[in-house]
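Figure 6 in text form: structure in, sequence out.
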């Protein structure tokens, strides 16, 4: 919260600093970890990959008053992952200067000065942080050194070619169900699947309510027995609750009420900053072969690689999409449609 204006903003400065700290911590784990087989140890110490991810993207949007798929949320989604990628690269390059680059760095795209977004055909001067100087962006507060012109990608490129990187791979956002539960936020970069639901984890079953919705309704005097009962009857959706203002209905749409095309677009937008892989769930209330096929091909055209479709029950289906180079299948009851690559 800005103390002068009283307006909420996203703190890229704090995210950048935290990402650099986590990058150094994960790099250290490679050296002190216990490996079950020698092959894993050899591979890890040669290539030194790490996997940074996120939790609570939906929570961040809600706290800023943004519906999940509005234009400002889409722009902020892209900007957040630019910040994470820049900070992780900066930390890995600094580590390489201190300890040397990873063993197989020479010959890699990074050794030739290529960032992940370069391989997507994206120019650095079109990235979110560069829109600051034109006043075109709703992005929040950047680190002081980058507030005027955005991240200096060319300077970072020169440093990367000169010093190398300590880690071959940096970002790998994946589902974070258990850790998100512990932290009290929604999983990874997904919308809320419901505003009132039962969470089943290894530790047991827990009845959960969206804490942000609960606060907003309480502040407005709307958290009444009638609203609670209808929320339960409607499976955690506020769409048909007359007492809830239309603005809150937009902000608290569940994933079943959001167009999956927008979710795929947001995955593609952040994909240019993800050098390892991301795993994304798409939710379909009434799956058909035509819908699933269309979603597969749209995701593929957007640069994402399709993995599989899992049937949860008669009426609900989750489609899992990656932009990874590898694809491991897990067992799951009766897949309706499954594609691998």
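Output sequence:
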């Amino acid at each position: 919260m800005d103390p002068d204006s009283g307006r909420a903003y996203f703190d890229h400065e704090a995210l950048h600093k935290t990402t650099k700290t986590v990058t150094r911590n994960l790099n250290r784990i490679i050296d002190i970890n216990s490996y079950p087989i020698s092959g894993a140890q050899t591979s890890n110490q040669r290539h030194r990959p790490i996997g940074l991810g996120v939790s609570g993207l939906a929570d961040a949007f809600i706290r800023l008053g943004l519906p999940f798929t509005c234009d400002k949320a889409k722009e902020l989604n892209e900007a957040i992952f630019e910040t994470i990628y820049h900070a992780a690269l900066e930390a890995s390059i600094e580590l390489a200067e201190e300890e040397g680059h990873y063993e197989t760095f020479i010959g890699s795209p990074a050794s030739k000065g290529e960032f992940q977004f370069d391989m997507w055909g994206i120019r650095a001067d079109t990235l979110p942080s560069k829109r600051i100087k034109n006043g075109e962006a709703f992005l929040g507060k950047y680190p002081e050194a980058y507030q005027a012109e955005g991240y200096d990608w060319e300077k970072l490129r020169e440093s990367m070619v000169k010093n190398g990187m300590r880690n071959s791979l940096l970002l790998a956002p994946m589902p974070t169900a258990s850790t998100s539960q512990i932290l009290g936020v929604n999983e990874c970069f997904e919308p809320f699947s419901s505003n009132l639901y039962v969470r089943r984890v290894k530790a047991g079953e827990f009845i959960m309510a969206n804490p942000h919705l609960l606060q907003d309704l309480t502040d407005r005097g709307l958290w009444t027995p009638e609203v609670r009962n209808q929320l339960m009857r409607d499976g955690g959706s506020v769409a048909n609750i007359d007492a809830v203002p239309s603005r809150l209905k937009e902000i608290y749409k569940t994933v079943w009420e959001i167009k999956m095309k927008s979710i795929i677009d947001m995955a593609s937008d952040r994909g240019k900053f993800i050098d390892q892989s991301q795993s994304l769930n798409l939710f379909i209330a009434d799956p058909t072969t035509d819908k699933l096929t269309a979603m597969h091909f749209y995701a593929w055209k957007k640069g994402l690689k399709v993995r599989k479709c899992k049937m949860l029950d008669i009426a609900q289906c989750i489609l899992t999409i990656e932009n990874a180079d590898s694809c491991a299948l897990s067992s799951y009851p009766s897949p309706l449609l499954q594609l691998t690559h």
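Caption detail: The chain has three domains: 12-163, 194-253, 277-322.
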